[in-house]
Amino acid sequence: MKLNELRDKIYQNAVDKGFWDGTEEGFSLPEKLVLMHSEVSAALEADRIGRHFNKENLLANELENKDKYIFLGAFSQAVKDTLEDELADIVIRCLDLCGKLEINVDTDVERKIDIFTREPAFLKAALGDTIPSSLCFVHMLISDAYKAYFCNDISSHLTGVISAVIMIARYSGSNIEKHIEMKMRYNSIIG
């Protein structure tokens, strides 16, 4: 994934939709971080009730359909509110904030994923061995980002969130890039 390009696209879409008013007065870091927390909690709930995307889903062709109504129907049935959909939401919200704060994400996320990949003991210590323990780690990174913002060190925490979510998706067998793409398409249609 070219995360900086994706960051810019997500951020610009948020600006175009009026989610950022262009002033510092309209910027609420606590609100943005709590919204990320809510997506993490939604991911936990999806996993808890067993709502996962079925890769063998009969609606796979409909999810690729150019017709927006066919896509929306398939997305609503097969993807919406699944663990994978909520993981995509976490990354989208985080990249949006990175866009606002002008954080370069590509290099740092790549480095962190490389560490996670090369150091399975570190990965297990950080993410644990269950979805709930992994999501707890993501909650911690988001909470720590608030404190780090005031020390001019928020970028490391936000790229940590993105890296952790990518690894959660990878180890749960999900294609996070595809889910981000589908969620962005869904969001652009529903406005």
Structural summary, described in words:
With 191 residues, the chain is an all-alpha fold. It has one domain. It is 73% helix and 0% strand. It has helices spanning 3-16, 29-48, 60-63, 68-78, 83-100, 106-118, 120-127, 131-149, 154-171, 176-190. α5 packs across α10 and α6 packs across α7. It is globular. The mean pLDDT is 89.
What keyword list fits this structure?
mainly alpha, 191 residues, 0% strand, 73% helix, 10 helices, single chain
Task: Outline the fold blueprint.
Blueprint: H1 3-16, H2 29-48, H3 60-63, H4 68-78, H5 83-100, H6 106-118, H7 120-127, H8 131-149, H9 154-171, H10 176-190
Helix pairs in contact: 1-5, 2-5, 2-8, 5-9, 5-10, 6-7, 6-9, 8-9
Q: Helix proportion of residues, in percent?
A: over 70%
Q: Determine the N-to-C terminus distance.
A: 24 Å
The number of distinct structural domains comes to 1
Strand proportion: under 5%
Count of separate DSSP helical elements: 10
Summarize the structure.
The chain is mainly α and 191 residues long. The chain is 73% helix and 0% strand.
